Amino acid sequence: MDTLPPLRFVTAALQVEYLRPTPLGVPLEIRGQVQEIKGRKVVVSATVSANGEICARGQVVAVQMPEHMKPAA
Asked: Is 46 in contact with 30 (CB distance < 8 Å)?
């Protein structure tokens, strides 16, 4: 996110489904989409594709860190 200071998040949950082997040496396409923003919680889904086929998909739940946990600038 393009904010100053930058927003910092921690991973609350991570789920990945490996659908097929991901080939080596080919360009990979990663597509993500924000599914939900609720307070400090953000849910994002993503897919990883190679040669036009989805190899993996997943979802992450990230929570914005409280101000008191952020490092001093």
From this structure: yes
